Amino acid sequence: MHSPTPRHVAGFFLSLTAAIMWGVLPLAIKELLAEMDATTIVWYRFLVAGLALFTWLAYSRQLPAIIQKGSQVRYFLLLAAAGLCCNYFLFSYSLNFVNGETTEVVIQLTTLFLILGGVIIYKEPFFALQKLGTSLIVVGLLLFFNDRLAEFDSFDNREAIGVLVLLFAAITWTVYALLQKQLLASFSSAQILFLIYLFSALVLLPFISPSSLFQLTGFQLFLLLFCCMNTLVAYGCFAEALNCWDASKVSAVLALAPIFTIGGLKLVVLVSPDYPFSDRLSFLSLTGAVLLIIGSVCIALLPILKRPRYADLADAPSVDA
């Protein structure tokens, strides 16, 4: 099990930086979708992050020797790569249908799915605090969508389609996270991400429109660069935070990401009241978002109290992309 060297202040601020980066990511992607499709955005993110990791791993002579691994490891790696690739694409694609607040709130279902995956696959116990956290997540989601529940009786509207896409994004991320637990026995986290980025960039290559890069404005180019660097910086801060702090505490801070999404959009609307990409959440919806965050934090902090075997699963961030 990973045993971080306690540096509480550094661990908190590194975790907070990752939460902020993931929290504001939907805002940038939503703007980019006006000129670039989701597949191309994700491909550029994988390409830049993969090249950066390749440079670092080559320099430190830590490039993964995948050929030397057994067939089971390669199979798990393939499934994990497919899971994270689908998660990145589905998360970005969902923003064609819903706004940033909804994406960050619904994607928090990864916390719930990860715990259920640990219970079902790894036969872990389901503690009372987890049940409380699960209940808060469900109630939070119902309150968040309180004025839109009627739209989910069919999939003939954009809101329902977007939420369904996000549901699959959460499931595919959970597949990646559960498999990463096994892969960490054979590769470092940086090696796993490099192989996944390489796989994803190659798989998405036939479906992209790279020339759309030249149609972007200066501001949109900046947003694309931010999205690319977001992957490196956020995952880098997350990985370093695990060297400073307990994984459960890191995950609890990462669960705050929706606050930065909602807060960022509130600030944008304050500056530009006509901004079209915000849900203008009601008090009841905001209350639901808070309950969902509290539920996620309760689940994430459980290892501090119980130290169950599934604590290693918290080594993966409870976000999308």
Main traits of this protein?
single chain; 321 residues; mainly alpha; 12 helices; 70% helix; 0% strand; globular
Describe the structure.
It is built from twelve helices and no strands. It is mostly helical. The chain has one domain (8-315). The longest helix is centred in the C-terminal third of the chain and has 27 residues, at 218-244. The protein starts with 7 loop residues before the first helix and ends in a 15-residue tail after the last helix.
> Main β-sheet, in a few words?
none
Give the domain tally: 1
Determine the structural class based on helices, strands and strand pairing. mainly alpha
Question: Helicity range of the residues?
Answer: 55-70%
- How many H/I helical runs? 12
User: What is the end-to-end distance?
Assistant: 25 Å
Strand content: under 5%
What is the CA-based Rg, rounded?
Answer: 19 Å
Detail the poorly predicted runs.
Answer: 308-318
The total strand number stands at: 0
Written as H for each helix and E for each strand, in order along the chain, the element string is HHHHHHHHHHHH
Round the mean pLDDT to the nearest integer and report it: 85
User: Can you tell me the overall shape?
Assistant: globular
